[in-house]
Amino acid sequence: MAEITMLEAIRAALFEEMERDPAVVALGEDIGVYGGAFKVTEGLLAKFGRERVIDTPISETAIVGAACGMSYLGLRPVVEMQFMDFIACCFNQVTNFVAKSHYRWGAPVPMVLRGPSGGGVHGGPFHSSSTEMHFVHTPGLKVVYPSTAYDAKGLLKSAIRDNNPVLFFEHKFLYRRIKEEVPAGDFTLPIGKAAIRRQGRDLTIVSYGAMLHASLEAAAALAAEGVDAEVIDLRSLLPLDREAILGSVRKTNKLLVVHEDTRTGGIAGEIAAIVCESAFEDLDAPIARVTGLDTPVPYAPPLEQRFLPNAEKVAAAARELAKY
Amino acid sequence: MTHAAVLLARRGRVVIVAKTMRMKGPAQHDAAEYVPAAMFEYWKTQDPIARYEAYLTEHKLWDAAKKSEIDARIERELDVDQKFAEESPMPPPELAEQGVYCDGCHTIEADWRRPKQELLPPASCVEAVWRVTDFGAFVPPAPAAKPAVAAAAGRVEKLGAKPAPAPVAALPATPEPAEEQPLRVPFGRGPKDRAFERERLEKQEKRGKAFVKHRRDKRGKH
Question: Do B96 and A108 touch (CB under 8 A)?
């Protein structure tokens, strides 16, 4: 087994799924001839041809609308948003049409909407947003956010085979920075199952995406100080694996939620509510959170560093929580 | 061309469509290798800056010395600005938290080009009713010599008069509705659609059976 990057894992999933099922088609801006802004879809056009790998005009609304029509005709379109920030341009198609289609008309939309998300690469306010929570708030969609190469491949395959619209967030900071051994063949991972990345008994850190790696780094630093943190990788934000979170909190009695997304309305709020509803008696400390600032993602490096959570910030919050 | 457009614009409203060509990739990382070389070659000949320079030279409005002087001045300005940018300190991290909202840091005032009074009552007052008179209303065909409407022709026929003569290009008659219209299921795959189809079949079957029963009962009685 070879070590591959998260980007290569996503590409492998696309190739394998398109090979397995001729109903899988890819469409998006510059995904064909150019191979995608991040080269995720490189080689796809040469292998599968123009009918199945479609370079679209620059209109996210048109892309998602077309993909929705394709899925009504039995295809499984995989749409690439060049940057997940641009999904705002097709907000109506995604939330009013795709998400409600099965509920209102009994018409399933087996679509995947994938793309690079998040900051940390000096992309500025229009290329670094975390847009996941707009869609976690939209019933009818599934929101998947892998943090490892292995998960990215297995979850993307599941997303493509899912009969529902799945938003697949790929953290662009992780694209080429993480590497691991990923099986070359076919495997899938269930959507809606969190993973315990590190066992611990003093406190629980819940995170996803790039911040999972900051959380793991913080947990490693804390271990040296005698604080034993459990780290949970959500992997999917909608559906949310309530049991994994509650089970861990019942064990450690302390919860820290870490996300890069802005603080207000981030997933930490929802998780805090779930824990208060179902495991309030098990809590030994107030639920803490480390998040992005309530601002757009700034461009200048020192400002972006200020915006983003990192291992030090997570470790500092976890230390406070452990002391409580 | 521009001159002609300006002259045209001065006579009234005009839309100018100006086709442009991006001669480089959108960013440093993109060498625009996907653009055919011939396309770049063509657009180089259309470059308005190069053409303007050629125009200036041709009409002796400048010379090589003047051109290099202008170029040098531009380079100097760019160098100064680049130096300023590179020598400036990085902004303080706390700045990230500022500027999301305008808390009175700006004075917002419209650039009025006409009296504000026009937009305030009473000048702004209108009678708030729909003014569209013919929207959706049936407008009967004018009593012209040629009854061009198929419906009109049908009416004439019904009254027993002679059908309208040939010149009337009568619209094709509406086809008789088929005995059983094929059910049009918009998506045909969801559970709700299947239930809809099943319900129809069941109803049909029940009606069929009831009819047969009715006939049998009738026969039995006699």
Answer: no
